[in-house]
Amino acid sequence: MTISKYACGTFLLSLGLLTGCGEKFLEETPSDQITDANFYRTQDDAIQAVTASYSELTKEGQYNLALWGMDMMADISTTGGGGGSDGIEYIQLDDYNIPTTNTVANRLWGGCFIGLQRANIVLQKVPNIQGMDPAIQRRCLGEAQFLRAKYYFDLVRAFGDVPLFTTPPTGPSQVYIPRTPAADVYRQIEQDLTDAFGNLEASYSGADLGRATKWAAAGLLAKVYITEGKKTEAAQWARQVITGSGKSLWPNYGDNFKIENENGRESLFEVQYVSGRNGYERNNVGFAGNEFFAPRGSGTTPAGGGYGFNIPEPDFVSGYEAGDTRKAVTIWVPGDPYPAGSATPAQLPQAPGSPFGFNCKKWFIGKVNTNIWDSGLNIPVLRLADVYLILAEAAGPTTEGLEAINKVRRRAFGLPINTPSAARDLTAATSDFTGAVLRERKYELAFEFDRWFDLKRYAGTPNGLIPRMTQQSAFLRTLGIQRGVPTERNLVLPIPQSEMDANPALVQNSGY
């Protein structure tokens, strides 16, 4: 499945016009003929409604802008771009000088609420559709439960307490509600993912490939539990995925990021992108990161050769261990050859927006077409390596936890994952095992938009956001790079000012 690889529906729902985009782009039904009153009558209606619930994942409120900033707020990357105020919304995140009008926070909030409310409508309407195949009806409900949990997980991690809606609002009194304590939001996420696990299928094929599976729900639930610090529960669900899903690590790390391997052996859930539609547009069906992250002015991509955003930081690059194959997949370093036909032959020691000659390479696929901000490379939301590292963190330096992290490490160095390596394996004697797991997550999941969330989980410890980024900022100043230092307020983003203005029941996060 993809928001763009199977049927498309454009329909009027009770909260406004909600659009899901699909493969049959030129066969959209006029929106003025489809209303909440005459929709949700058939199985096809239900499937189209679920498709619309996925569609926000591809847009500015999720993986086509907002979540990019999560690595820039951490110790992986800095803004880059053209300098000055170029990418001001990311500069604000990078410097921890985030106004309540920051557009990244605004888009993340809005995109998540649009997506989860679409899921709420599915959960309200689909049970009442007569004549549906019971298996398809159950699957549709499971997908909606999974998606509502995913959107709420991003909201509660980013903002803390947020308004909790489990049914579609029918009027202002139900829209303008206070923030719900984060603990209650997490309980709803846990329930949704548990229910989704029971409703979803184990795998799909054909046009349905890419839909959320029960193993996607189980993996996300493990991630939710480790975020909450519930290590016993996180380990239980991670084990289920590892032993029951049939998934396995690719032999080569880079295999995860090839179009021909999308939804493949290691993937649990991906944002589905296709090329050929975007133009200069981040709210369509292609991924814009190919253009935005490519070396600036390099001629490697359609629109002038790349914009050079999301620049790897020098100490992140130097932190790769010798022989780690993930570096060549993830980072452009000086001397790396460009594809034939580029404006310059290779990565320069210094480049516009990148004074140390580093750029993010992980999502690069080159001149894919002439549609500019447009790549068909899927973005993994969850893959098996992440689950192994969740298990390692949850189980600690036990035999089980060590084997989980060492499988990931062996693959990183091109070794057989099931064969112990005296040179690369961590042991029970490893000092600060939690720090070692977080470091492994840093390099395994770099530029997959998790690092800020990981550092926040250990706030108040030496591995947490504030001490880590205070150290990082001091290091960057020695290189002549000025960067702000986070305080307690930066453990969450500000509630968007537009939402505060619209909803008098909201209370702003402390310090904003």
UniProtKB/TrEMBL annotation:
<keyword id="KW-0472">Membrane</keyword>
<feature type="domain" description="RagB/SusD">
    <location>
        <begin position="266"/>
        <end position="512"/>
    </location>
</feature>
<protein>
    <submittedName>
        <fullName>RagB/SusD family nutrient uptake outer membrane protein</fullName>
    </submittedName>
</protein>
<comment type="similarity">
    <text>Belongs to the SusD family.</text>
</comment>
<keyword id="KW-0732">Signal</keyword>
<feature type="domain" description="SusD-like N-terminal">
    <location>
        <begin position="24"/>
        <end position="225"/>
    </location>
</feature>
<keyword id="KW-0998">Cell outer membrane</keyword>
<dbReference type="Pfam" id="PF07980">
    <property type="entry name" value="SusD_RagB"/>
</dbReference>
<dbReference type="InterPro" id="IPR011990">
    <property type="entry name" value="TPR-like_helical_dom_sf"/>
</dbReference>
<dbReference type="Pfam" id="PF14322">
    <property type="entry name" value="SusD-like_3"/>
</dbReference>
<dbReference type="InterPro" id="IPR033985">
    <property type="entry name" value="SusD-like_N"/>
</dbReference>
<dbReference type="InterPro" id="IPR012944">
    <property type="entry name" value="SusD_RagB_dom"/>
</dbReference>
